[in-house]
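Extended Data, panel c. Modelled sequence:
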Amino acid sequence: MTVGASGSAAVRGALPPVPGDERAPGPATGHLDGLPGLDPDDLPDGLIVADETGRVVCFNAAAARITAIPRSDALGHPLERALPLEDLKGRRWWALTDPYGGLATRVGQPERNLLLPGGREVLVSARYVRAHPTGPVRRLVICVRGTEARRRTELSHAELIATVAHELRSPLTSVKGFTATLLAKWERFTDDQKRLMLETVDADANRVTRLIAELLDISRIDSGRLELRRQPVDVGTAVARHVQSHTASGQSPDRFLVRIQQPLPDLWADPDKIDQVLGNLLENAVRHGEGTVTIEVAPAEIQHAARTEKGTAVTVCDEGPGIPEESMSRVFTRFWRGSKRGGTGLGLYIVKGIVEAHGGTITVGRGPGGGAEFRFVLPVGTPAHLS
C-alpha cells in the first residue's frame, strides 16, 4: 500500500493484512475487520497504526483532535517522530518501551498517562500484532484518549474529600472542645451545664455518624454493591413515623398532610433504605420548603415492554419557591444544594441510588402549590421464592 501526501488509503482504514493473523482487516476495501462502512474516523477514540517498519499508516480524525497533531504530519512518518510521547519522568516513550525490538512475548501496553510536547496529557494503550505469538511485530495498534473525563472524576473525588473534611471538622472541633473543657473543669460546672455540653457532644457525634453512613452509601452505590434486605414494608406506617418525629422535634402537626390511597400492593423492600429515602425527602421539604408538606402514598402501575407491574408511588411536595427549571436536571447529582446552602449535597444522590437499586424511579417537578415535588415509584419487589 502506498501512503501519499493525503494518506487516503490509510485514513480509510485500508490496512494490508498481517499473514497468519485472522483478526487483521482484509484487502484494501475501506473498512475495518470485515465491517463494511466502518471508517476509522467513525471511532470515538484516537486510532493510530504503524506498520512493520514503524511508519504510521493510519491516523484517524479523533487522534488528530486529541493529540493536536495534524494528520499530514503523522502519516508516513516514523512513529517516534509522528507521536513523540514521553512518560511523566520525561523519558522518550517509544525508545523506552521498544515495541519492535523488545521481548517477543509481549502483546501490548496497558493504558497509561503520557505527555506530548507542550505538556498535553493523553491516555495511551497499545497492542502488538504478530503473525505468530513470538514473531516480529507486523503492526502496532495504538489507542489514544483525552484526559478530560478522568480529570472530571478526579475533580469530583477532590470535591468529595474537601466536603467531607469541612463537614467533619466542625462537629469534631465541638466534640473535642467540650470534652476537653469537661475533663479540665468538671467541678466548676453545674449539672445543667454538664448536661447541655454532653447533649451537644452527642448531637455532633450523631452528625459525624450520619456523614460516615452517607460516604459508605455513596461507595456502595458507585460500585454497584448496595445490598438490599427485602422485607414487607408498610409505607403508610413509615410515613406516619417520620411525620411524628418531625412534630416531636417542634414542627406543627398542621404543617403535614398525609394522604394514603388504599388498598396498597404488598411492597417488598429494604425498610431501612426506604426510611432513609423518606427521611431525606421530608427533611428537605421541611428545611427548604414552606407551607404545608403533603405526602401522598398511592398504588401505581409500572409499564414494561411486555407487561405491567404493580408498584407503590410516594409523592412529597411543599409550597415553597420550588426548584428552578434550569436546576432540575442536576438535583440528583453530587453536591447539589440549591439556593440555600447547608448540608453535604449528597442526600438526593443517595436517594436516587437507593430507589434505582430497588428497580424504581424518582423524578422531581413543581407541585400544585408551586413548591418542589419529588415522586418515587417502587415495584412490589416480591422475592422470587414467593412469586
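The longest strand covers residues 293-303. This feature is highlighted in the accompanying rendering.
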